[in-house]
Amino acid sequence: MTDNSMILPINQENIALAARALRSGALVSFPTETVYGLGADATKGNAVANIFEAKGRPSFNPLIVHVPDIETAKRYVTFNKLAEELAVKLWPGPITMVLPRVEDCSISELASAGLPTLAIRIPANPLARTLLKEAGIPVAAPSANLSGKISPTEAQHVADDLGDKVACILDGGSCAVGLESTVISLADNKITILRPGGISREDLLPFGYPVEEAEADAEISSPGMLLSHYAPGCSVRLNAMQKNDGEAFLSFGSGFEEIEDLNLSAEGDLKEAAANLFSALHKLDKMKPTVIAVTPIPNEGIGIAINDRLNRAAAPKE
Ligand code: TXA
Ligand code: MG
After folding, report:
1. Do residue 62 and residue 171 come from a single domain?
2. Closest residue (by CA) to atom 9 of ligand 1?
3. pTM for this one?
């Protein structure tokens, strides 16, 4: 029998409890107008790593960060005129904008998978916004289902998939839209639909800018694009056991203290390593080494996603 004790009815007390859980780094599932989200504090790499671990995803894809209002969104991303117009008209609502991260953005690099841009949205569900205000932190949240399973539109769906991995599930009934938000990019003064969803192309046309459709998630899912987006400038050598001249050395666990430039997790904790991965690669890349050498990472649990990312970075460049 499924244990449903983590499903909480909505009231002020339970919202406060969920907000506290989020602030403490735990996972909380909450309803939005599209689907139930699996939320974590977007500023904490470890909390974001919990999301990937819980969903059992074998790779890191960039997540949507949820905020309660435009003012808060502006702390994390830069709005151009087009973004400003769309935000005023379509938010709160089922649309996500991919915008440049501000300099010194406090969102974890894992949340945007090392990209210079961040996907952000203000959900229409008032309960979701109350939770976001009460929590006082930006919340990264993909749909609250196991990798490869159907997106959840009721609290019970979340409990069935992820009940043992969340601090609680706020029960907001059925989701009104029942389909994920539309993801758009706003570069080059045009609207590019990266993922179709709750807001249609027709809803976007009246703004008077060109509206284009990218191939399904092209920007993110194609490995070639992934490489050009966030591979380090130098090459990457995997399963390194020693450091060669001119190399930057990235280690995991103990045994390399004499030669390491950075350690993903001295304790050998894969979740901590995932949380540190993208910022570590960026830091080492800035040292302008010939090669970033990386020690072996155990290929289990979230280590599979870490190795997926490192393998892409190590793939020959075109
Ligand atoms: O309706 C929704 O959007 C739900 C609810 C919970 O808000 N969330 C959701 O999140 O579907 P997620 O993480 O499953 O979807 C993220 C989408 C993916 O298609 C991803 O490729 C795209 O947004 N994305 C995220 N960051 C991006 C970026 N920096 N550039 C391009 N695409 C990005
Ligand atoms: Mg999903």
Report:
1. yes
2. 142
3. 0.91
